[in-house]
Write a structure and sequence with these properties.
Order of helices and strands: EHHEEHEHEHEE
Helix content: 25-40%
Number of strands: 7
Strand content: 25-35%
Length: 174
Amino acid sequence: MEDQLTLVKPAEELKNAYLSFYREWLESGERMVPWVISRDPSDFSEMVNWLEENESGRNLPEGWVPASTRWLVTREGEIVGAVNIRHRLTESLLQSGGHIGYGIRPSARGNGYATQLLKLSLEICRELGMERVLLCCDEDNVASERVIRKNGGVPDASFVEENGNVVKRFWITL
């Protein structure tokens, strides 16, 4: 499967594949993860430009950190997942956000895509010069915890959010 999947930068030529990915997630009613996929893609060029600016650190809102977004694409050109890699952490991200947020479209889950997505994302983290990355998932998200552990995640202290939600935290040494 590994050779069938690639992480690619958001690009105009993937517009139709991305809109299919986005619509499916929207219609599922689930929370969109990573958060960047919840951005309205109706002006696709503007969205791609915004993601490029995020990666380069240009025009970031106050308190934001640069972040690289990639789409997980099959050999057939279908987008099955997305990842957002934060280049550094704020205090808030250190508690409950982590360096990497990722998600697999609802119809593609259960196929090992998340494990591959995270593995490929860790390669990008190495290229960015990171030595250790933090990953977080809600306590009840056993599938995500399994993916993180498969990729070398070592548990750290959990964080309890104001609403009582428990966030499990894991470090991966690169």
